[in-house]
User: Which sequence fits this backbone?
């Protein structure tokens, strides 16, 4: 600051020095004193403005008039800061602490006062968090809980979509959590916990289900998974049980730290779980006289996943196998197509899946190919008198033409009718292309 002021002072002196010849010495001294006064005033202004900089100040105001689907929340703006903020107040709200996804903007011009806003379309019996924000300054979180649902219909507990998390992950343990969004009806939770597995499909009947060790009123609970394998990916989901039944969360995953232990690719691990497949539909789609597409589904990929899937078929038992040509998803429906089949014939088939250790099969199903459609047609001929026609009949392929020779008797000329249609040139009659049985009459 001192260097800035001194620079301005020297610039002022130099600017006057160029005009010294036009002023008396007293005039020059008066100008210097005025410049010193201006610099002093500028210094005071700069010092005051820097010292007065401040941010807006906001506080939460107690919400009221809660209903099952709405609540009135308030934000107390106690200061606009210096310089005064001019942007509108935003109120963020959601079902997790310090939410960022949903917000409303208060329409009134910003000033120091308590702002109130009615949040609507909320979920009954649910805890919400909210806070106010002006520019990048925000208040602390406030909370409210909407009124409990009045429905008496029994229901199972539900979970937030992104409500499962993992933390404190080591090489052999992890702290897993789940977040109940609604306890269901009746609302008393009888048991809750976490199930985990190395398979993406986590069974709640598994031995790897552990009860919650910590639970709180917000709906979050925790379970500590131990004796895990280093460098291994685990999948887990939460469960909660009330008198109506069990609610299950979505599946999340985590990977333990460290290096995964060596496993012999031909030896099944101790916790190995075989995959399972089944026939998806008993009626194969796209069935023709020579082809069939059969559908299979992976009902459980097992603990190590699946490297190949498909189907086998045969006349007495399914021994010829083909890999699937269409897979809808890793654990979903897939199609396998068989070609070169016999018409109007029953075949046996089964679904298979492979991993590094084995091939598993479904039960056996059957399908019958369609009867073949005729690809040849018969053209018959005849005479009504006055001559003869040959041959008396002929067989042609679909789309081909038939040729007949006419021999008129004396005094007759050749003429042809019938259902085939065609052209007579001399005594030779050629039909139109044939796609069904027809006749020629001479």
Assistant:
């Amino acid at each position: 600051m001192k260097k800035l002021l001194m620079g301005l002072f020297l610039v002022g002196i130099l600017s006057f020095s160029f005009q010294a010849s036009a002023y008396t010495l007293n005039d020059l001294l008066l100008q210097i004193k005025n410049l010193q006064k201006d610099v002093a005033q500028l210094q005071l202004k700069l010092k005051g403005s820097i010292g007065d900089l401040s941010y807006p100040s906001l506080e939460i105001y107690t919400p009221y008039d809660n209903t099952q689907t709405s609540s009135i929340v308030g934000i107390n703006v106690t200061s606009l800061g210096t310089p005064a903020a001019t942007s509108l107040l935003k109120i963020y709200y959601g079902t997790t602490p310090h939410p960022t996804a949903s917000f409303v903007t208060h329409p009134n011009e910003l000033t120091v006062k308590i702002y109130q806003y009615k949040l609507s379309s909320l979920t009954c019996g649910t805890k919400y968090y909210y806070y106010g924000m002006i520019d990048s300054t925000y208040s602390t979180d406030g909370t409210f809980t909407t009124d409990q649902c009045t429905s008496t219909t029994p229901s199972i507990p539900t979970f937030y979509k992104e409500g499962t998390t993992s933390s404190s992950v080591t090489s052999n343990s992890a702290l897993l959590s789940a977040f109940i969004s609604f306890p269901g009806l009746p609302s008393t939770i009888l048991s809750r916990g976490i199930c985990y597995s190395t398979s993406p499909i986590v069974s709640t009947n598994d031995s790897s289900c552990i009860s919650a060790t910590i639970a709180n009123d917000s709906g979050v609970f925790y379970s500590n998974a131990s004796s895990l394998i280093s460098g291994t990916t685990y999948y887990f989901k939460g469960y909660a049980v009330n008198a109506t039944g069990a609610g299950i969360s979505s599946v999340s995953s985590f990977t333990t730290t460290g290096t995964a232990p060596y496993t012999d690719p031909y030896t099944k691990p101790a916790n190995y779980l075989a995959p399972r497949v089944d026939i998806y539909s008993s009626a194969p789609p796209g069935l023709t006289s020579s082809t069939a597409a059969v559908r299979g589904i992976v009902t459980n990929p097992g603990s190590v996943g699946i490297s190949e899937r498909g189907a086998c078929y045969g006349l007495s038992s399914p021994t010829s196998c083909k890999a699937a040509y269409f897979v809808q998803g890793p654990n979903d429906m897939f199609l396998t197509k068989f070609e070169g089949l016999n018409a109007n014939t029953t075949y046996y088939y089964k679904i298979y899946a492979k991993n590094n250790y084995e091939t598993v099969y479904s039960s056996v199903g059957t399908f019958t190919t369609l009867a073949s459609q005729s690809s040849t047609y018969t053209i018959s001929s005849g005479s009504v008198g006055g001559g003869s026609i040959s041959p008396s009949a002929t067989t042609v392929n679909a789309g081909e033409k038939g040729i007949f020779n006419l021999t008129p008797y004396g005094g007759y000329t050749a003429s042809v009718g019938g259902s085939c249609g065609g052209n007579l040139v001399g005594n030779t009659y050629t039909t139109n292309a044939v796609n069904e049985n027809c006749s020629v009459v001479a």
